[in-house]
Amino acid sequence: MPAGGDPNPSASSADGGPQPRLEELLDTRHDPAYGEAVQVAPLVQRVTAANASPFTFAGTGTYIVGHKRVAVIDPGPDDAGHIEALLRALEGRTVTHICITHTHSDHSPASRALAEATGAPTLGFGPHPAVDAGRQVAEASAVQEEPGDWDFTPDGVLGHGDVVAGDGWTLECLYTPGHISNHLCFGLPEEQALFTGDHVMGWSSTIVPPPDGNLGDYLRSLELLISRGDRDEVYWPTHGPPITTPNRYARALLAHRHRRTDQILACLRDGPATISSMVARMYTTTPKVLHPAAALSVLAHLIHLAEEGKITWDPSADTRSATYALA
Ligand SMILES: [Zn+2]
After folding, report:
1. Residue 275: which domain range?
2. What CATH number is associated with residue 72?
3. If exposure means fewest CB atoms within 10 Å of the residue's CB, which of 2, 45, 157, 245 is most exposed?
4. What is the DSSP letter of 151?
């Protein structure tokens, strides 16, 4: 069972609509073929790092886009074996751009070795966000996500709508905050493909860790992908297998979060509650080991509900012992 962003809900919540449930669409079948350059689409190769973990699934999938003059998306962790495999895959070719979806340590650190070896510029939304990591939240987040890559500064800054034009390929930038505030997705119109980084993954829902991770942003970033309709035929996440029914999948992710919000409001309608009591009530079929992840997810939802003016709590209290109530 994946230990990703929001553990699967208990089967108790009713869902009569035609929308498939997220649990039915999750896909964990995946051959990472560590160290090999696997041709996954006519313009796309993937080299996977052997950094498997509960956050990275089978490891970081670094994408090479193009034939002779290529872009590299998410060079990956600072891992000598992975960098060597990547450089081997790139032998005889020219890297013209190094693109970063975001600055977690499983995505951007290898950009430095790659830039040094190839001379290519690194491109991303910006450095790692300097957030006021509140005490308990920071503690909780630290065990729930990959650490930040504080050493990354892009040579070139990319924003929403920017286009990186290469030799036979184009990467269109979509600003998709939520998992982290500097997250980008990259569209490849030549293949109606979208590189989704950690914003949308097929094996698990995404961690949205407060305070920098923001559920309202995440939901808007999901709606942005959904609004693209059938423009995308496939999503290539940085971790795990491709998503071949992308719009349907993004809608299932959105419905999953709305269902979670409804569950929280239902809890609070019965009276003020703490996060741990809500987790115990909502995640009855989830193994206890995943309850810290569930608590972080509930906190992200509570912050979003407070932003919408629907709930209140004493912000000076420890988020774990605080009592949350309907506004
Ligand atoms: Zn990642």
Report:
1. 259-326
2. 3.60.15.10
3. 157
4. T
- For residue 53, what is the DSSP state? B
Centre of ligand 1 to C-alpha 249, Å, is 19
Token readout for 232 is 């995308």
Identify residues whose C-beta is under 5 A from ligand 1, the ion.
106, 198
CA of 144 to the centre of ligand 1 (A): 12
Q: How far is the CA of 3 from the centre of ligand 1 (A)?
A: 13
Sign of CA dihedral 135, 141, 143, 148: negative
Q: 255-295: per-residue pLDDT in tens?
A: 999 999 999 999 999 999 999 999 999 999 888 888 888 89
- In this structure, the answer to whether residues 214 and 296 fall within a common structural domain is no
278 lies in a domain?
yes
Environment class of residue 104 by beta-carbon count within 10 Å: exposed (0-12), middle (13-18) or buried (19+)?
A: buried
122 part of a folded domain: yes
Q: Do 220 and 319 have their domain in common?
A: no
13/94: higher pLDDT: 94
Token readout for 142 is 């630290």
Distance CA 198, CA 205 (A): 9
C-alpha 246 to ligand 1 mean position (Å): 19
